[in-house]
Design a protein that fits this description.
This protein has helices at about 5-10, 50-55, and strands at about 25-30, 35-40, 45-50, 60-70, 70-75, 80-85, 90-95, 100-105, 110-115, 130, 145, 160. The chain is mainly beta and about 160 residues long. The protein has one domain: Metal Binding Protein, Guanine Nucleotide Exchange Factor, Chain A, CATH 2.170.150.70. The strands form three sheets. The protein has a seven-stranded mixed β-sheet. A three-stranded antiparallel β-sheet has the order 1-2-5, with no helix packed on it. A hairpin with a 4-residue loop joins β8 and β9 (about 110-115). The longest helix is centred in the middle third of the chain and has 7 residues, at about 50-55. The radius of gyration is 16 Å and the shape is globular. The termini are far apart. The structure holds zinc ion (ZN) (2 copies).
Length: about 160
């Protein structure tokens, strides 16, 4: 798979539109040059404790919300978006002006992680902690803690203690 996939290549065919108007939320980079809009609901949301998220976010935990690729739209500053792909599974999108992170596309899953912290008006409703084996901090919130990922997402499904 080629690296630095163009944004439009990540978009998949739209599904049949729902009857109800979908809620939408905007996320912007640190300087405001780039904005994206998501609509509907994330496929799922949670926290990731993996080493890559820790390094990329410069934070111990990444609050992720995974959206279908076709429900994420760049509304401002598309030409300011830089992409870094450490592996072919993650195309990390950032603002070339301010360096602020915006989202990470996962082409294999056809999902896009729009960082939950950035979505205005959105209520983060996490259901799990992923990659808890490499946690830097413990979170005693009662949510399931996966060593890596749930089995239906390609992980071992193994659970760890808080
Ligand atoms: Zn910016
Ligand atoms: Zn991660």
């Amino acid at each position: 798979m080629k690296k630095n996939t163009a944004w439009n290549d990540l978009l998949v065919e739209g599904e049949v539109a729902h009857a109800e108007p979908a809620a939408s939320y905007r996320a912007g980079c640190f300087c405001g040059a780039v904005e994206v809009e998501v609509s509907g609901k994330p496929v799922f949301a949670g926290y990731c404790h993996c080493a890559d998220c820790q390094a990329w976010s410069a934070a111990p935990i990444n609050a992720f919300s995974l959206w279908k690729a076709d429900s994420v739209r760049v509304t401002k500053g598309e030409s300011e978006i830089g992409t870094f792909s450490k592996t072919e599974h993650s195309d990390r999108k950032f603002c070339k002006r301010c360096g602020g992170h915006i989202m990470t596309a996962h082409p294999r899953m056809r999902l896009i992680d729009v960082y939950a912290n950035l979505l205005k008006g959105y209520t983060h409703e996490p259901t799990l902690h992923a990659n808890y084996a490499s946690k830097m901090v413990s979170v005693r919130d009662g949510l399931p803690k996966y060593r890596d990922l749930p089995a239906d997402l390609g992980g071992s499904g193994e659970m760890l203690q808080d």
